[in-house]
Specification:
alpha/beta, TIM Barrel, 19% strand, globular
């Protein structure tokens, strides 16, 4: 696994299994019990940003996106907190022949953005992976500790339904953290007609 460090040492882009992952913010509206940010070793190197990178810095860190199987907006943090930056960089990626663009998100953009980002993703984003985390609002809040409380879960489901209309591949994911009912969560994804992914919990 290689990374592309900013001259000042910030890891903005790093490679995993043929994909290029973008680290554009460390902020999040959740505080999930299993969050990798609680794990000091993280992805094997320090993804804490001294400040959030600009669009230009992100593009420079990417370089030529065309060799990568996919480019992924992910964390340390919730990328859609910088929704305008994600859309601008995604447009740039398209014009520079990125094969596939994915966003990993907590699905709460409707609660923290003051505009609807879903239509802006049409034709740009190929895959969106949304953290379902649980099969109902109460369990979601126990695990995700959202600043929005239990209303976060309904917002996440509504966001998922709207993404389904404009993004070719929509995935709901759970981490098999102790207490998570994976089968019930899978049934929620099936009821929405989207894909489901069970991610394994890395305890350390
Ligand atoms: S949504 Fe993601 S970045 Fe945010 S706290 Fe949960 S695991 Fe961490």
């Amino acid at each position: 696994m290689k990374n592309k460090s900013h001259p000042k040492g910030m890891v903005i882009a790093y490679q995993v299994d043929g994909g290029l992952y973008l680290n554009i913010t460390n902020r999040c509206t959740n505080d999930c019990l299993f969050c990798i940010r609680n794990n000091e070793t993280g992805m094997g190197y320090n993804l804490w940003l001294e400040r959030e990178p600009t669009v230009k810095e992100i593009e420079e860190a990417i370089g030529d996106p065309s060799p990568y199987a996919e480019v992924v907006f992910c964390g340390y943090g919730e990328p859609l907190l910088r929704g305008d930056v994600v859309i601008e960089v995604a447009r740039w990626l398209k014009t520079h022949h990125a094969k596939k663009i994915r966003i990993n998100t907590n699905g709460l953009a409707d609660l923290f953005l003051n505009y609807d980002i879903v239509p802006l993703m049409k034709g740009l984003i190929d895959t969106i992976s949304i953290s379902l985390n649980a099969h109902n609002a109460e369990e979601y809040q126990k695990i995700s500790q959202s600043c929005f409380g239990e209303r976060a879960y309904e917002a996440l489901l509504g966001f998922t339904k709207r993404c389904r209309e404009v993004i070719p591949e929509v995935i709901l994911s759970v981490v098999d953290y102790p207490g998570v009912d994976v089968d019930k969560a899978r049934a929620v994804a099936a009821s929405l007609g989207v894909q489901f992914r069970n991610r394994h919990y890395l305890s350390d």
